[in-house]
Amino acid sequence: MNLKNEELHGKIVEAAGELFKQQGFEKTTMEQVAAEAMTSHETLYNYFPVKEALAEAYFRVISKNIARATLESVPTLPDTRSRLIAAISSIYEWSELNPDLARVVIIYRLKIRGACKLFEEIGTQSIIADILHRGRDAGELRNDIPFEMILAYIDYLGSAILLDWLRNNGQGNLRKQIVPVVDMILFGIPGKPET
Fold it and tell me: Quick one: fold of 51-187?
């Protein structure tokens, strides 16, 4: 994407984000976004074929901003477990405050998952990848499980937690629900010892 296209893309996402904040996802129309971004409907649809794609792009911006803030606090934490919980909790905090938009984004991502790269080098995903690399280098993670598999487990289990929380109309503390999942990924599921 050239600089002019990147600027227009950013302008459209920013306009949509403002409209989503003001009136919610459902009440925001693509026509309103085009008008707010001062672009044509055709141009808008060239960048974003559906409103859900626009919401997902807006979430990417949010995720990058959250990642920047999280990046400052994560290195001060004592171990991989606490770093993972902090990084994932930061994005869940936004989801707790924006459940309707979180629902749209997670469902859209699950629909397109096969067509996109699993962990892109942006936002909280890049922080999680960095935490895992550091944890492996420090000897806190097993070396016999492929790195990409660990990332996939975190991604899928995190999505499942978020979907379950959304299905239950936001009941419970979403951020506390990540702790047992992180423990399961890092330490397995202990069972009764064999006799």
Answer: Tetracycline Repressor; domain 2 (1.10.357)
